Amino acid sequence: MLNLKRIFFLSLILVSCAPKRYPPEFLPFAPGAHKNPYGAWIECRIEKNKILEGEFIAIHEDTIFIADKSTLYAVPIKDINGGHICAYNSDEALFVPFVVLGAVSTLTHGFWAIFTLPSWVIAGLISIIIRYYEPIIFYSEHSLKKLSKYARYPQGLPKNIDRKKIKMKGF
Q1: Per-residue pLDDT reduced to its tens digit, 119-148
Q2: How far apart (Å, rounded) are the C-alpha atoms in residues 130 and 21?
Q3: Residue 165 maps to a domain
Q4: What is the per-residue pLDDT for 56?
Q5: Which segments of 33-159 does DSSP mark as H helices, in order?
Q6: 24 and 10 together in one domain
Q7: Residue 72: what pLDDT?
Q8: Are residues 113 and 48 in the same domain?
Q9: Could you tell me which residues are beta bridge partners of residue 75?
Q10: 62 lies in which domain range?
């Protein structure tokens, strides 16, 4: 039983230390995501080792616009090798207390705890991992045009806008 406890807590620590694929404070939580006037977080692989990331500003026929803290980048779509968009902050850490409480509750199961504790740990970790990846949309699964709804300007950059003034949302 002691080994299961160690495995459980080690697993929770590993899941909670998983790196975010976006700055958590940049994106809104799921309930308020539809009210957010800014674009989603986007990460593009442009070359083998070059990654461009920032706020998804707009997409045109042959160009995608991404802003970081100081610059608006216009990247030809043909140069993009892959990447992903994070639509909202998944806040998967909310699941951890429920998994812990469920696992602790198995102590009242007596002998059957050897079955129910691992079940709680496995199901809980799976649900946390699923929640972590829920807001992430990979390019291979969707065409870039369909992803335009996650941009700050879903219909493309307005014609009269000064591109030098477009910066990533401050956080």
Answers
A1: 999 999 898 888 888 888 887 545 777 888
A2: 14
A3: no
A4: 94
A5: 95-105, 113-133
A6: yes
A7: 93
A8: no
A9: 64
A10: 37-90+135-160
